[in-house]
Design goal:
184 residues; alpha+beta; two-stranded antiparallel sheet; 4 helices; 6 strands; elongated
């Protein structure tokens, strides 16, 4: 019943990847183009991802420069950034938008670390739910006579090892993000 193991592993991989994506848009004291991944801009009556209407560059550790492909969108881009939950203050010169990334306060760092821990815990729960689904599949296959008890037991053990390794991976991703948030 290796299809249960491989489909569970695939789902666990996606869970870890989603956590990394979630963390990419979590602001630290450093400038990163990934901060803007979730920002959508009103573009000719449609909402478009910021990175599809502008070039985002990071010339310095605490500076982001956004260059719209259409200068007419500069106001909309600025509005989208201001109304995002990033708490950033963009300024423009008519051609490009510059955003200085201020250092985080100690209080904000702790708040962000807590948010990161919550995201990680949600990912751990998702991995455990995937394990449960996999075990349910194995039990169904056993009842249907598709696999033997030994196979069910061996696959359940394999599923547990997989779960443990992804829980550990999530912990590593979290530790890395917390270090990034807490350092200046």
């Amino acid at each position: 019943m290796h299809s249960v193991i491989s489909s569970s592993e695939e789902r666990m991989k996606k869970t870890a990847a989603n956590l990394k994506d979630e963390f990419a848009s979590l602001r630290t004291g450093r400038a990163s183009a990934a901060l803007f991944d979730k920002i959508k801009v009103d573009c000719y009556g449609d909402k478009s991802p910021l990175n599809q209407v502008a070039n985002i560059s990071v010339p310095e550790a605490r500076l982001i420069v956004i260059q719209p492909w259409d200068k007419g969108l500069i106001g909309e881009i600025e509005k989208a950034i201001r109304s995002s939950e990033l708490s950033l203050n963009p300024s423009n010169d008519g051609k490009v938008i510059r955003i200085a990334i201020p250092p985080l306060t100690e209080e904000r760092r702790k708040e962000l670390a807590k948010i990161a821990r919550n995201h990680a815990e949600q990912s751990r729960v998702a991995v455990r739910n995937i394990r449960r689904d996999g075990n349910d599949e194995l039990k169904k296959s056993l009842k249907a006579g598709e696999i033997t008890e030994d196979e069910e037991s061996r696959d359940a053990e394999e599923l547990q090892k997989l779960t443990n390794s992804y829980i550990e991976k999530i912990g590593g991703i979290l530790n890395e993000k917390e270090r990034e948030i807490l350092e200046d």
